[in-house]
Amino acid sequence: MQTETHTVLSVQGLSKTIGQREIVKNVSFEVKAGEIFGFLGPNGAGKTTTIRMLVGLTRPTKGIIRIGGYDLSKQFLQAIRQVGCIVENPELYPYLTGRENLQLFARMTEDIPPARIEEVVRLVELQNRIDDPVKTYSLGMRQRLGIAQALLGKPQLLILDEPTNGLDPAGIRELRSFIRHLSREEGISVFISSHILHEVQLMCDRVAIISQGEIVKTGRVDQLVGSHAKVEWMVEPHHAGVEKLRGLPYITQLEVLNNGRVLVHMPMEKIAETNQALVAEQIQVSGIRPYQQTLEDIFLEMTGGNSIA
Questions:
Q1: What is the pTM of this model?
Q2: What is the pLDDT of residue 259?
Q3: Which of 125, 154, 157, 179 sits at 20 to 30 Å (Cα–Cα) from 32?
Q4: Which stretches make up the Carrier domain (predicted)?
């Protein structure tokens, strides 16, 4: 029986070399049951290559991928049966109805009873439109039908590559709510690659950031965002204030600005203690301005400012 700590996807020491270039370098992470896991990286970081290895489209140079406990390289069919996958917009037959599309895909897979089609239609909430031609569907509805197709085989893991591409804000919000429902109510693990970092922050439980082929940061979204706070201090005398702030053990970064301002990375809960320490040294504090960093700030910091894609 699965528990909260059950690992659905385990990636250990994954590497991929093409020619003389190592594209993915010793990547390791885990995705737990019922978890929404975000996978972020700038152009050329190795993100797409990693996803292709996860679904068996590219063979790793070294490393181990286990899905549902099965080794992808040694037990391919058992492992890949645990996965449903959509890369960007799903490929559907527009002149067929939604139901006919699902029936067609079900015939390509072993042991999909007709009742399972009804189940996935309810899961993606397309009951009222499932017998309409797909060409009449909105992009958001097509995305949900694609997810229904990916869920036909009852996978433990759903891999979505750029699932919000082309969706309007209402469609993105609807998809976010739906994905969280799959995770929380159905216990399905969801692995998402997306360039919309605000949505990743709202949707995902944990994220991994890949840059230049290596994982540079992995952690819970709430902990990553909460632990990367910036506070701007206005102090006088400026030099004395800078030196006092620099000497505090919980301040991890310090940037001297103009007009008596200093920007530091520090825990939010230490603001009052820091203010007391400055005042005790006869340093006047005329302004304190906290900034809560977003996932986008952390991403840019970890990847050297490279744009995401």
A1: 0.79
A2: 82
A3: 125
A4: 269-309
Preceding peptide of 237 cis, ω within 30° = yes
140, 175 Cβ separation under 8 angstroms: yes
Residue 297 pLDDT > 70: yes
Instruction: State what percent of residues in the chain have pLDDT above 90.
Output: 59
What's the confidence (pLDDT) of residue 226?
A: 67
Structural fold of domain 7-225: Rossmann fold (3.40.50)
CATH 3.30.70.100 for domain 230-292, yes or no, is: yes
C-beta of residue 167 within 8 angstroms of C-beta of residue 140: yes
User: Could you tell me the CA-to-CA distances from 119 to 99, 112, 158 in Å, in that order?
Assistant: 12, 11, 16
SS3 percent helix, strand, coil of the chain, rounded to 5, is 35, 30, 35
Q: Do the beta carbons of residue 72 and residue 60 sit within 8 Å?
A: no
Q: Are 274 and 266 in contact (CB under 8 A)?
A: yes
- For 55, the token pair is 């679904």
Token reading at 42: 């700038």
Residue ranges covered by each domain of the chain: 7-225, 230-292
Tokens of 247: 């000497």
Tell me what pLDDT residue 217 has: 87
Could you report the per-residue pLDDT of 51-96, keeping only the tens digit for each? 999 999 999 999 999 999 999 999 999 999 999 998 767 889 999 9
C-alpha closest to that of 285 among 249, 250, 223, 242: 242
The answer to whether the beta carbons of residues 303 and 45 sit under 8 Å apart is yes
Q: Give dist(CA 154, CA 137) in Å, integer.
A: 24
In this structure, what token pair is assigned to residue 227?
Answer: 């632990």
